[in-house]
Design a protein that fits this description.
single chain; 191 residues; alpha+beta; PH-domain like; 4-stranded antiparallel beta sheet; 38% helix
Length: 191
């Protein structure tokens, strides 16, 4: 996967991954069934014992079967594969990025300093396939969900490790928390 990501000075990519490939199970099964049915239809229409009413139209009917199969593949099989191929989860030492979309690109970016809490969960099917959902709490009752994350617990550990490596002042928007002044209960410095 080629990642063209503009990084800030000192920023580096820790991990880049696609969503879990289980999203492709139904499109691939449908593609196999459509191709099998189209192959059977073309084979049936090219046999010697074809009724005389269909024999004159067999070439056109075979073309129609192939066109119908191509339309089914283009409508129901190709788009999910393209969505999967052009989606990615990227963790840098400063950001968590989710990119998706083929023609219309969408990118969601979270600064690691804004992450309040991480939660990973898996359904039974997720556990079997070692994927899951990562929920990121960014405060103010706002949760961001990343679905179909492969190895979700390892991915969460990588994000936690990246957060732990942030400078302490990054958690407070660059304000130095180790100042010299003493503060009263209202938050004003002594004069």
């Amino acid at each position: 996967m080629s990642i063209r990501l503009k990084l800030a000075p000192g920023e580096r990519i820790i991990v880049a991954s696609r969503p879990h490939a289980r999203q492709l199970v139904w499109p691939v099964l449908l593609a196999v069934v459509v191709c099998a049915v189209a192959g059977f239809g073309c084979g049936y229409l090219s046999r010697d014992g074809l009724p005389s009413g269909l024999a004159g139209w067999s070439g056109y009917l075979q073309a129609a079967v192939v066109a119908g199969a191509a339309a089914m593949l283009a409508r129901f099989c190709v788009p999910p594969v393209l969505r999967w191929a052009f989606a990615s989860y990227i963790v840098t030492n400063r950001r968590l990025i989710h990119r998706q979309g083929v023609l219309r690109r969408r990118e969601r970016e979270l600064g690691l300093a804004s992450v309040v809490q991480l939660e990973a969960w898996q359904t039974f099917a997720d556990r079997i396939q070692r994927s899951g959902t990562l929920a990121v709490d960014v405060g103010y009752n706002r949760m961001v969900h990343y679905e179909h994350v492969p190895e979700v617990h390892k991915f969460k550990a990588i994000v936690v490790g990246a957060i732990d490596q942030l400078p302490l002042t990054a958690m407070f928007d660059g304000v130095d928390i180790e100042g010299d002044g003493e503060y009263d209960y209202e938050g004003r410095g002594d004069e």
